[in-house]
Amino acid sequence: MARLLFVDDQASRFDSLVMMFQDLGGHEVVVAGDYSAAVERVQESAFDVIILDILFPPSPGSRFEIEGKYPGVRLAHQLRNELNLETPILFVSVCSEECVTELTKTYKAIEFFGKPVSASKLLAAIDRLVLSDPDATDET
Question: What is the chain's mean pLDDT, rounded?
Fold first, then answer.
């Protein structure tokens, strides 16, 4: 079982995905609906994997308020550099894969998933990260 942090401003739209992580994957899922909540969660507790939306509005007035085209990617950068977080990050977004490939590499995200998210592929990536070698490839 892994502890997952799911960061998305529309997380309630993914209730069935969260339930699948819990029921099929046996994972504990913590949801953060904004940047401030995400930062609070990682400061309070350790997570095995963070699932982070790329196009995510920052919390107004937060010291983590971010401007730019891909604020979720910038948040990942801040989590890595300001909080020294080494937790694997999986990016999700409505962006095409091409628009974030270089950003994903730059900010050391493990993998990118386009929305709508394939629940089985996302769960397989989580399982690879927590149960085996993160460099292993998905054979499906």
Answer: 75
CB 107 within 8 A of CB 80: yes
How many helical (H) and strand (E) elements, i.e. helices and strands, does the chain have? 5, 5
Omega prior to 116 cis, within 30 of 0: yes
Q: Which helix (H) or strand (E) holds 113?
A: strand 111-114
Domain-embedded: residue 35: yes
Q: Which residue, 24, 86, 67, is CA-closest to 76?
A: 86
Cβ-contact 16, 41 below 8 angstroms = no
Query: How many structural domains compose the chain?
Result: 1
Query: What are the tens digits of pLDDT across the range 36-75?
Result: 888 899 999 999 999 988 776 555 554 444 445 566 777 7
- Burial class (CB within 10 angstroms; exposed 0-12, middle 13-18, buried 19+) of 104: buried
Domain that includes residue 24, residue range? 3-131
Residue 114 is part of a domain; what is its CATH number? 3.40.50.2300
